[in-house]
Amino acid sequence: MNEAPDTFAPLRDFVRAMTALVESTREEATLLAEGRGHLAALIADDGWLPEAFAVPAPARYMQYLLHCDPLERFSVVSFVWQPGHRTPVHDHTVWGLVGQLRGAERCDEYALVDGRPVASGASHVMKPGDIDAVSPTIGDWHRVSNALTDRTAISIHVYGANIGAVRRHRLDDAGAVHEFVSGYDSAVVPNLWDRASAVRTRAGGC
Ligand code: FE2
Fold it and tell me: Do the domain assignments include residue 179?
């Protein structure tokens, strides 16, 4: 019997590694350093993201939940951008790692001056394999956009909370700060746990 390959293995391995990590420490520097290694391994493989979680929408960028830790210690989200899509200037309020999977994203950096986010004038472009870190202690405000005009951009994010349910902040065009809760654009998460094919293979088939 020809079994389907286990395409979810990289994401499942990442979820397991992050679960072990948040179980082992609450220290942000360690979470970011070790999480970066796990995320690098995940985005080195471009074959695991299901199509339903990689679909762009015309009106705005999409945020698809891939996994949320049952204790909400971390969440994993795919962000999908068409050309022209960009976020508002925003913060996260928790630690986060952003890994570029496909295409490229531009990050415009902001700094807090007297408690208000101000453009630092610095920006950088993320290419596949690149990883950014954010948090209130290392720098939490930025604006992200698709850096290319001819293709979809996809990045994989891991945050130290159920990020779609976190009260965060955005800056409007007039410079006023507003609270927001992002939510998610997906109603389901991928089924990482149907490992029957690997088990059947080990058992010699049935
Ligand atoms: Fe962000």
Answer: yes
Whole-model pTM above 0.85? Answer: yes
Please say whether the dihedral angle defined by the alpha carbons of residues 22, 28, 30 and 35, taken in this order, is positive or negative: positive
Around 50, how many Cα atoms within 13 Å sit in the side-chain half-sphere? 18
* Domain interval for residue 157: 9-189
CA 88 to centroid of ligand 1, rounded, Å: 9
Instruction: Note the pLDDT of residue 1.
Output: 41
91: CA distance to ligand 1 center in Å?
6
* CA 23 to ligand 1 centroid distance, Å: 25
CA of 174 to the centre of ligand 1 (A): 20
CATH number of the domain to which 140 belongs: 2.60.120.10
Tally of domains in the chain: 1
Contact of 155 with 79, CB cutoff 8 Å? yes
Q: Is residue 182 part of a domain?
A: yes
Distance 203 CA to ligand 1 centre (A): 45
